[in-house]
Design a protein that fits this description.
six-stranded mixed beta sheet; 4 helices; alpha+beta; 6 strands; 117 residues
Length: 117
C-alpha cells in the first residue's frame, strides 16, 4: 500500500498523535470512489481539527498538493480531507464507532499503521 499521498498524510497524523490509523486499499473494490481511505480518530474536537490541519500541511509541504475538498470543520466530529485518490477521515472517537467505516468497507484490505514519529 505505497502511495506518496498516503505516506505524507499518515506522517502528518502521526505528528499530532492520531489514534488507530488504518489504511483501506479500495483499488480492487468495484464501487469505490477513490483508491485509499485513511481512517483515524482523536480524543477531542481540538485534536480532530489539528489532525486534519496536519494532513493538509504535510501533503502540501511534501507534494505541493492541496485537497480537492474538505468538510466537517464546523463541528469537528468527522472531518473529511479529499485528495481524489486518497480520502482521509479524521473522526472524534465516538463518531468513528458510530459510523464504522472499517465495517462498511470490511471487504477491502486494511493495514493498521504502527506509530512512527
Amino acid at each position: 500500500m505505497k502511495n506518496k499521498t498516503t505516506d505524507a498524510a499518515v506522517h502528518g497524523l502521526q505528528e499530532k498523535k492520531a489514534r488507530d490509523i488504518v489504511i483501506l486499499d479500495l483499488r480492487e473494490m468495484s464501487h469505490a470512489v477513490c483508491d485509499y481511505f485513511i481512517i483515524c480518530h482523536g480524543d477531542s474536537t481540538t485534536q480532530v481539527e489539528a489532525l486534519a490541519d496536519a494532513v493538509e500541511t504535510e501533503v502540501r509541504e511534501q507534494l505541493g498538493e492541496k485537497p480537492w475538498h474538505r468538510e466537517g470543520m464546523e463541528n469537528a466530529q468527522w472531518i473529511l480531507v479529499d485528495y481524489v485518490d486518497v480520502v482521509v477521515h479524521v473522526f472524534h472517537r465516538e463518531a468513528r464507532e458510530f459510523y464504522d467505516l472499517e465495517g462498511l468497507w470490511a471487504d477491502a484490505p486494511a493495514k493498521q499503521v504502527e506509530y512512527e514519529v
